[in-house]
Design goal:
Elements: E1 3-12, H1 18-35, E2 38-44, E3 47-55, H2 56-68, E4 72-82, E5 94-97, H3 98-103, H4 111-114, H5 117-120, H6 125-141
Parallel strand pairs: 2-5
Antiparallel strand pairs: 1-3, 1-4, 2-3
Amino acid sequence: MALHEIVYVSLASEEMTSQELEALLTWCRLQNEKFQVTGVLIYHQREFLQLLEGEADVVTALFEKIEFDQRHQQVYKIWDGPISERSYARWSMAFVDQALIEAVPQAVHPSWFSQGLARSVKDSTGRKLLLRLRDEFLLRHGEST
C-alpha cells in the first residue's frame, strides 16, 4: 500500500453558507470513508486549505476532481508526495473554521486568517502548519470527525 499526501489551497467560486459547508462535509466524509481517504479541511472567507492522504492513485484522482470542480478557483498544490504514515488517520475529514480556531487562539498563528490562507501557507509551510494544527489543536480539543 503506497500512501500519498496532497496539500492544496483554493478559492471558492462563491462564499459558502454554513448549511452548504455542512452538506459538503457530510458528502466528502462519506466518500472519504468509502475510499479510505483521511485529512483536514480549513475554510475561511472563501479560501480552502486541505490535506488529503491515502492510496496514491485514489488521492491523485480525488485532487484531479477538485481541480475541475466548479466550486473551486485558483487551485494551487503546495505539497504532493509519498508518506510513510497518515498524519490525520483519525479523521475522514477534520474541519476547521475561524470560529473553531478562535475558541483556542494559540493553536494557529494569527496571520493564517488576517493575511489569508493562500498567502500564509506557501511551499512546505502549509504542510507543517497543518501538522502543528493536528498536534496542538485537534488532538487536544476532541475534533474527531
